[in-house]
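Every protein is a chain of amino acids, and every chain bends into a shape of its own. Below is the pair of lines this work produces for a single protein:
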Amino acid sequence: MERADAGSALVLVVLTTGVLVTLGLVLALVATVETDVVATTSEGTQALALAEAAAEHALSDLSGLRSWDTALAGTVASSFFDGATGSRFFGGTRVDLSRETAVLLCDTITCAGRSLDAVTANRPWGRNNPRWRVFASGPAADLVGRGPGVRPGYAVVWIGDDPAENDADPLKDGGPPVAEAGTGVNPGQDVLVLRVAAWGARGARRELELTVERADLQAHTGLRLRVWRELRGAVS
């Protein structure tokens, strides 16, 4: 009888120990997951702040251009600019500028053999499809400084002609409407669209879309914001 009681006690101890070990592992896993979630959320917030800073810098530079044609053609860039092609590496993350631009232009990672005038779900304007150009680009440290708390990151700002234009010339802002437009007015004159992407650590990525117009049409100075929105599908 004593042996049976001792055996039962031993089994109970083993089972209790197993339960406690399992609970410990579960608690450790929960703590790890919560830590990862907090870290990922923090990196995403910093990436969004970087995207907003890059957008504001690009808008400041655009406001000083009397004509946006040179920027649309890619012959003038922002003062925050380290190139429009090639790969960038930071904090274990790789950003391929050529690939990112191709996705905007052609809905795929390369534009080889594809017409930029093709009508697609994302680019339904045909000859007025924006010809996205990298206007601003660079690491976070070049934009916001290298002070304490600045995390590794990279930001890019593309600009494109307003697709509401009817001049069939996406490298020119507000050209004469084509004959088939049936109107003498170009509704997209003095309007630009910006796409902004920023990457942070741990794979964080945030994207913005902005539409801006001239604040003073006579002097061709200043900017007025029409749209500023985060592209939620780009959140990682």
Remarks:
- The longest helix spans residues 2-63.
- Residues 30-39 have pLDDT under 50 and may be disordered.
- The CA atoms of residues 120 and 177 lie 22 Å apart.
